[in-house]
Design brief:
2 domains, 2 strands, 56% helix
């Protein structure tokens, strides 16, 4: 009569590989996936690292596809964000000089125009006998 072997240690965990893949696709961290499926991060690293990496990349490409579709559909915010991320576009920075804003992102002809406006403004203020730091209201402070 055969004898039964004593099983020692913890019972083997049954982890749903499809659930791991789904969680990885929506960019869950290893810690989050481990918490959902009820195992340790080390268990995931040992047994599912390839599944997780592949599905994280698939999730990223799906998200990128949805973003492009949204931008091409006319979502201006998404167009701006994608332009900043992939085309190196940026918001122009601006510096205020008196009541004229000079945009860092402006082209040279625009900058030249703004500088000429500033020169004319300074000339006009000096004809009135007003200090160039004054905005002409007599208070000695620039109005905002």
């Amino acid at each position: 009569m055969p004898t039964k072997l004593n099983k020692r240690g913890r019972p083997k965990l049954k982890i749903d590989a499809q659930q791991v893949a789904t969680l990885a696709r929506i960019q869950c961290t290893m810690k989050e996936i481990a918490a959902v499926v009820g195992c340790s991060v080390k268990t995931l690293e040992r047994n599912y690292v390839d599944v997780i990496k592949e599905n994280q990349e698939n999730g990223k490409s799906s998200l990128r596809r949805a973003q492009w579709k949204s931008a091409l559909g006319g979502n201006v915010g998404m167009m701006i964000w994608l332009g900043k991320q992939h085309l190196g576009q940026k918001e122009p920075t601006q510096a205020y000089t008196g009541d004229v804003a000079i945009y860092d992102g402006a082209d040279k002809s625009s900058k030249a125009l703004l500088e000429s406006v500033l020169v004319r403004r300074e000339a006009r203020l000096s004809q009135k006998g007003v200090d160039s730091g004054d905005n002409g209201n007599g208070s000695g402070r620039n109005a905002v």
